[in-house]
Amino acid sequence: MFLLSGLVASFGLSVRTLRAFITTVLSHYHAIPYHNFCHVCHVLHAVFLMLMTSSAAVILPAEDKLALMIAALCHDIDHDGYSNSFHGK
């Protein structure tokens, strides 16, 4: 999705470095029922589709698109699977 979006080319990102980053992010997701890496992939794909098929494709600058893709990838990092009310927040 990072390649297809053109973000790798736009920023001159190394595919090897991007792969290492994604692998590191993956290592911080836990094998829990919902907030796991599979969920992250679904969210990332939804963000990618919105960026590629809506007016966001022409309105948003590349920096914002990259920020949204990274935010989608990292949004539940280290989530323990419990709600805020469980933690008393």
Describe this structure in words.
This is Phosphodiesterase. This protein is mainly α. It has helices at 7-11, 15-27, 37-53, 56-59, 62-74, 84-87. It has one domain. α3 (37-53) packs antiparallel against α5. The radius of gyration is 15 Å and the shape is globular.
Features:
6 helices; 89 residues; globular; mainly alpha
Helix count equals 6
Low-confidence stretches: none
Structural class: mainly alpha
Strand content: under 5%
Topology order in helix (H) and strand (E) letters:
HHHHHH
Q: How many discrete domains?
A: 1
Could you tell me the radius of gyration in angstroms? 15 Å
The number of distinct β-strands equals 0
Helix content bin: 55-70%
Distance between the termini: 35 Å
Residue-averaged pLDDT, rounded? 95
Shape: globular
Major sheet size, sense and barrel closure: none
Write the layout of secondary structure elements.
Blueprint: H1 7-11, H2 15-27, H3 37-53, H4 56-59, H5 62-74, H6 84-87
Summarize the entry for a quick read.
The protein has 89 residues and is mainly alpha-helical. Helices cover 63% and strands 0% of the residues. The radius of gyration is 15 Å and the shape is globular.
